[in-house]
Prior knowledge:
The protein is α/β, with parallel strands linked by helices.
Amino acid sequence: MAKILITEDDSEFCDILAKFLKSYFHEVDTAHDAGSANELLRSFDYDLLILDLNLPDGSGQQVLRQLRDRGSKLLVLVLTGRHEIKDKTQLFETGADDYLTKPADLREVQLRVQALLRRKSFFQADQLKVGRIIVDLAQHQVEIDGQIIDLSRKEFQLLELFVRHPNVLLPPEFIFEHVWATESESNLDVVRTTVKRLRQKIDPEGNTLETIYGSGYVFKI
Length: 221
């Protein structure tokens, strides 16, 4: 059971979603505007925030930014009506853990919530295990079926980024900002070439690391 805050200006959908999540034994609070959400976030410890971007008294993205500025590591699932890749990239850069495009199916919301909550406990360890792959963050080492895989520093950072965002479409701009942000001489071409090298080493059959042409990459688990 998790403690969840839903911030959504559509009160009818908010109530339906809250009731649905409660059926999975979660404790759920609701807010319909940014002010109420901020007050609840300061008063209670939540495991996850479901956040609509369009709020009557401000932007949900501003709520998210303020949350991260306070140093909060609260899991945030954003609900957005925006479909542009650049908008989704901006959400990740602001600090979202995942997003769903509205209208959102209740079952899909619950599955995303479940996946995020699994990641919360998963990422507290020094090792990240996804299927046959073990990423040792302390030793900077990767194993597949017990065999150590030789990765460059950037390949390791790229794999860690994918593992931390499973089943999420990551645009190349987002990947570049997180792996090559301090290297002014690099450009987006380096994302494509490094993904290609990483795939050859960990997923030569292409079953895990999928390219969505024109959009980005998905690490499937």
